[in-house]
From TrEMBL:
Alphabetical keyword list: Apoplast, Manganese, Metal-binding, Secreted, Signal
Source organism (scientific name): Solanum pennellii (Tomato)
Signal sequence annotation: 1-23
The family this protein is said to belong to: Belongs to the germin family.
Protein's name according to its UniProt entry: Germin-like protein
Domain of life, source organism: Eukaryota
Length: 225
């Protein structure tokens, strides 16, 4: 009897010890959130505090204007209109947003990432070449390119955090919607964040990292600053 009790106890404790832990930390909603003791110096997650629900109106949950293109970016030939926490306050804490992207002929949304969100691309007009890089878990120096040529009605998903691009290969405009599972998907543009950081990354680090010489690095800095 005592032996049976011992085995049962051991079995139960083994089960409990091997059980997964169900508590988890939330995903961050911002890049950094340094703790402060002074409430006067504090900001809230994404810099937003909630309105008294009694004061909320339908307009807090409404945005108008996704039917027209945003302003064109001259360097790369794309324009964006964001329906996110900054333009639709009702999105706060809902974990969803949408962006309209207009690509000029040959326009490019350069290599970038959204650390906080998966991106679902739906093409409305034109032809968009979209791709993302999946790191090779076995080799730090390698990745695989997953890419597709998308036409109106085509949908492509880009997993959270991966480096991606979208490019208009045609000679007419292209438009797509990018939906995100974040209220504030925040883009990091790879070229400019590397070559136009403030303060700058040391030339030597960039030259070694990209296997270029310092003159070429200086040229790249000039292009992105
Ligand atoms: C916050 O205040 C406590 C008590 O005054 C102090 O011990 C602690 O170091 C402070 N933390 C920060 C991040 O300032
Ligand atoms: C876009 O939608 C707004 C709001 O409904 C409307 O005022 C505007 O005329 C529309 N623009 C175009 C080009 O359809
Ligand atoms: C485009 O830019 C102009 C001038 O900067 C601005 O007034 C306008 O609101 C912008 N339009 C859109 C759709 O962002």
């Amino acid at each position: 009897m005592r032996m049976w009790w011992l085995i049962t106890t051991l079995a139960i404790s083994a089960f409990i010890c091997n059980s997964p832990v169900y508590a988890y930390d939330n995903n961050p909603l911002q890049d950094i959130c340094v703790a402060v003791n002074d409430s006067q110096a504090a900001v809230f997650v994404n810099g937003k505090i909630c309105k008294d629900p009694k004061l909320a109106t339908a307009d807090d949950f409404f945005f108008s204007g996704l039917n027209v293109s945003g302003n064109e970016s001259t360097l790369f030939g794309f324009a964006t209109t964001h329906v996110d926490i900054n333009t639709m306050p009702g999105l706060n804490t809902l974990g969803i947003s949408i962006v309209r992207v207009d690509l000029e002929p040959q326009g490019l949304v350069p290599l970038h990432t959204h650390l906080l969100a998966t991106e679902l691309i739906t093409v409305l007009e034109g032809t968009v070449y979209a791709g993302f890089l999946v790191p090779d878990p076995a080799n730090f120096f390698k990745s695989r390119l997953f890419s597709k040529i998308l036409n109106p009605g085509d949908v492509f998903v880009i997993p959270q955090g991966l480096i991606r691009f979208t490019n208009n290969l045609e000679h007419k405009k292209a438009t797509f919607l990018a939906s995100f599972n974040s209220q504030n998907p925040e883009a990091i543009a790879i070229p400019s964040s590397i070559f136009a950081s403030e303060p700058p990354i040391m030339d030597d680090i960039l030259a070694k990292g990209f296997q270029l010489d310092e003159t070429q690095i200086a040229e790249l800095r000039k292009k992105f600053s």
